[in-house]
Structure formats: structure tokens, C-alpha cells
Amino acid sequence: MNEQSSQDLSLGFYRPQYSAAPETYITALTRNVLDIPRGAWPDREPGDAQVHVVYKKTPLSTRSDLEVTHPCEGGDAELGAWRDALQAAGVNFGRNDGNDVARGFAMAFEGTLASKAKGQAAVPMTQSLAMLQNLRGMTGGPRPFNLSDALEQFYGLGRLDGSGDGHTAAGRWLGAVKDRTEASPLLEALDGAAASLIPPVSELDQSGTPPVGPLFGTSTPFGWFHDAWNRLTSDEWVKLLPDRRWSDWAATVLRNAIGFGYLWEARWYVNIADRITKGPDVAGATTWDDLVEAMRVEKLLRWEDSDARPGKRKVSHDLNNLLLRMTPLVAELDNQIKNGGQSETVPDGLRRIASDGEAVRRIDDVVHGKQVEGLYGQNDNSLEAVRYALKERESKTTRDMDHYGLIRLTSNNWFVVEPATEWTAVVASLSIPEPGGSTTVSHLRGELARLGLRPNDKELIRHLVAAGLAVGSADAEGALTVNSAFR
User: Fold this and answer.
1) Degrees to nearest 5, angle at CA 402 with 326 and 78
2) Do residues 60 and 116 touch, judged by C-beta distance below 8 A?
3) Which residue has the higher pLDDT, 58 or 251?
4) How far is CA 276 from the centre of its chain?
């Protein structure tokens, strides 16, 4: 039996905020490996306020101090400088008008434009392109959620035995992007030209051992994230995928990590609260392994059949009921847990809390949505973070559409699980150890279970067929062959 300390029950996750643009997840991750000192920007000093940077303004970009890096958002001088930078980097315009070519490349870099975005990002295909915006600019907030460290924490929790292998999620992204850039003369030229739009970028020291968390096993969203990220950043996948597609897939993996990671956290704390409120006998008989096993079989998000009635498919109530109470529930349970010592075991810690009538009353009130003295009330931070990570972004034009959502808002204003074809392609392909290989529906179903998704074979096959990934007769069900999207 794993006699884990009761202190490990407190996960210590950063409280999340939503990110409107998919590219934001990669931009945030770069914070741990790349840097532009705030004093390096024009008209800025080292002691000035943090810089807010976007690639392109949107109607919701209201800050007066916003740094905009899009070369066509200025005047003729900015466009001319961008044209010259492209030529100097080795881009051949042929007989085409230089300004037209320059505009075309600048527009091609534009990422997804979500309807509620505070800015539009450049697609982060290279180091320089990733630095054409930052998290402050994209969220509009002075102190945005520490998305980069949250991703690193989730990545670390997915390691098989909890040991550090010396790699970080950001470090693997940087290595993959460097390889992609060096292998493509055009991408290398575009990276060099994009570097002219911003101050010099420095690479941060990556020495040291990544932090190691408690052991939850690999049948978690963290385990899925760790393995999918390692595959996507491996030499085989880096060489196979087109540039824009690789960046889109990377953003999709990071979105799933955040969305399902915080759903997992919510279920973890609700399960702990449930054991405590059932009394000292139930709480004291609960081990760490019991809690981990309960999470292993947990369904984090209902995925009903596509032909089921809309009322049965909707997950809006499930998400609201679970996530709106997360801020006060995490705070209350963490406060109760920390009153024990490091040597206190999980059963002893849970029994201690369950034996305290006032603690049980407070926890039960939070679970049932009541305001508790000394705690913030319910808020939608966790709910919005999860929904924006997983949902199909709403956009005004086909060009700006998000093709990688898992949940969709219906005409009834309900959220339902309806994965986009590209989402299916990403998750199915990265469940296969080698690009160009194949697997079975049964194996893919097991990978989805790590995310807390449990569709039946018929529903899963329906989406695989739509994505062109299923090979053979649907009658084969779990034995049906599933191919990678790129071979």
C-alpha cells in the first residue's frame, strides 16, 4: 500500500483563467525558455510596467500601451522595413510586387481570431513568431494566470514513475521548433525576418531538475499529455507534419492538457470532500490508492451518442455544477489538509478532518454552493478556463475558424461533446507510438479514457470514419484498425 502523506492531497495547482486564442497556449509556454526584457522595447525602461504585446489588434484591444508587432498595422515605413527584412532573410519575391508579397506573408502568420479575443496572435511556428505576442497582451490582464508553469506542472505529473528525465514541456517545444526551422530554408528565412519586428530574444537557462509531484499513475490527463507531447515533439513527428499543422496540433495538445487537467483537479477535490462528509469511518478507511483508483475510472466529461436527443447530450450543467465551486472548495480543503503534518498519512488526515464537525459543515456548505465565512464565493474562472480550452472558438469568418474544438455550443445555448474532425485526427494519431503506424479502436478508447472520455465504439467509429482514419468494417468494433492522419 502506498502510504502517501496527507499533504499530497493538496495539489497546489495555479488558479486558472481562460485563454481566448488557441495560440496563446504555446506563447505562454515560451515564457520558460525565451525572453525579451521589458526595457528592450522602444520607449521602455527596465523598471517600467510589464509590456503587453499582440500581433494584431482586435475591437476588444482597448489598452493604449499595447505593443503591436504586425508589420501591416503601421504605415508605409513599417511595411517597407518588413519587405526589406524578408528580402534580407533570403525570401525571393520573383517578379511579384514586394509590398504585396510582404503583406501576404504578414497575413499568413495571423492565427485564429476568436470573437472574444483581446488580440490576435501570430501562428507560433518558430521562436521569433512565438514572441510576436505575449500572455499579457493576449489576455489583456496585468497579472495573467501562470499558464506556462501550470503546463509544466501537468507535464511533470504525467511521468511514469514521478522521476525527472531532465526534460520540460517548454524545452521539448523549443528543441522541436529549432529542428523544424533548421530543416526548412523558408521557415528559417521567415523566422529571421520576424525577428526584425521585435527586440532581440534571449534563450533562458534550462539547467536544473524539473519538479516532481505525487504519483497518480499514467491513466490520467497528465499521463496523456506527457506521452502525446513527447510523441509530437519527437524527431519522427517533427519531420512529418507541415509547419502550420504541427503548431496547430501542439496548441490542441496543450488545450486538452489544461481543459482535462482542471476537470481532473475538480473531481479529485470533490471525491475527497465526499469521503470526508461521509464521516470518520469512511474517511479513515480511504487510502491514497483508493482515491487514485477512483479517479482512474472517473468519467470527466460525458460523451453521448451524436444521435441522442440534445437534452441528453448537453454537458453545460455538468460543467457548471462541478467547476463553479472550485475556488472556494480548493481553498477550504487545502486549509484543512495543511493543518496536518508531513508524517500524517492520507487515512489519518481524512479521519482528522472528518472528525471535526465545523470543518465538515464548511466543506458540505461549499459543495452545495453556499457562501462560507472567510472564503471567496463561487466564480467562473475554472469553468471559463475549461470551456475555452475545449470548445470550438466562435469566429466571424471561415478563415479565422477554430478546427480543433471538442465541445460545441448549440443553438439552444447548450454545450455538447462533438469533436471537430481535426481534434479526432490529433488525438487518434498521437495515440499511435510511431507516425505512419496504426492502432485499434480498442486501444484508442483506452487513450481517451486517460482523458476521462468514454464514448462507445459506435460513436467513436463514427468520428473516425468522418476523419478518414478508420480502415475496415465497422462491424469489427474494437478491433477496427485506426490509421494515423499522416503516413
Assistant:
1) 110
2) yes
3) 251
4) 31
